[in-house]
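ok so i was messing around last nite and threw this chain in just to see what happens. nothing serious, just curious
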Amino acid sequence: MPHESHPLRVAIGAPKAELPRIEKVLTEHGEFEVVGQAIGPQELERIFSMDGENVDVLVTDIQLSGEDVIPSLERIHAQHPDVDILVYTLHSNESSVIRAILAGATGYILKGDIGDISTSIRLIRGGGSPVSPTVARSVLRAIHSKTIQPRVKTPRVPQAANKRTLLSDRETEILILMGKGIAFADIGKILAISPHTVTAHIKKIYRKLQVHSRGEAVYEASCMGILQQRLR
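result:
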């Protein structure tokens, strides 16, 4: 994770009963500072309308107080593109996953060990995109069934080919493993490289493909035919 000059400033969107536990996990070591809490979409947007420049990461469920948060995420992402968005939820259906990714989510993890939130934030700030294995499978199923409707034009074949030639052999191998839903730490073990090296390659992949998340990278890889390749 790159050096931060101050504790990472985190806003939280969660059911009221979960807010104290999440705040405790994030603040117990002084690495993070909770700068806003919300139990509904409107309250979440209010945090960013009043003090959005002082938020580094947003951790939120995709439903708050029974309301859909995705439209709020779209507005927040549009107004504050530098804010990383981590979805922490029980919802693993394909529609929810894809909508969140297209709305700007940088990571999407399913509720379980609450300590996963801290780990995922660190990964995001290091240039990664934490995604639970079940969620990664949802993305792949959506790609295979052609249910993704991206808000950007699907790359034309020549453009896709150009992007593909920009990738090194190692970057292509990592992208294939990402498409299989394999965790970044396990990718390093498979390829016998350090986690730092994996993160560095992933940053280059995102830059070359002009994407900002694992889900978008997997989609581009599918368009380029990379997911159909096998590792040597």
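not much to say yet. The chain has two domains: 8-141, 157-228.
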